[in-house]
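Lab notebook page, bench 4
Experiment: in silico fold of construct C2
Operator: M.H.
Input chain length: 187 residues
Purpose: comparison with the prior construct
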Amino acid sequence: MLLIGLTGSIATGKSTVSHLLSRPPYSLPIIDADLLARKVVEPGTPGYAAILDHFQSTTPDLLLPAPSADLDKALNGKGWPLNRPALGRRVFGDSPDRKRDRQVLNGIVHPAVRREMYKALLSYYVRGHWAVVLDIPLLFESGLDVLCGVVVVVAVSDPDIQMKRLRERDPHLSAQEAEDRVRSQGD
């Protein structure tokens, strides 16, 4: 089975390329590391528990508040959802504390994402797919490029366009927060 690595920095168009490859005439299955990263930290998962253990005591807004009417739905016996913007503010930036916290978060999330990725790869292989796209922003940094028969890098030639795309996608980010996220991609 051919593994096609798809990579590039944040807000460069990887999702657009993934979408094109998942449709006819290609109809390739996509394993999206960003989606898996969200899945492995959902309430009730070991990743969620590890994030709470490390960050909750020093990040008071780590969990999203839910309207009282949605209390049962939000808790669902597993816990409140993570406040991703608050966690992002905690780990993105150039200060030594933020870099350390980003390493801790990556140490929690990345192994769990790899496990889910390998399970998905096995599933696609068993079902007879001839190729699978691995959409992984940090493909080279994680060393997963060695698994790929071919790698596609998506890039934007104008940094202003990248910032505009990121701020349109994530309007809660300030200009500084957007720049911090782009700069942290290699960490």
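Observations: The mean pLDDT is 91. The radius of gyration is 18 Å.
Next step: discuss at group meeting.
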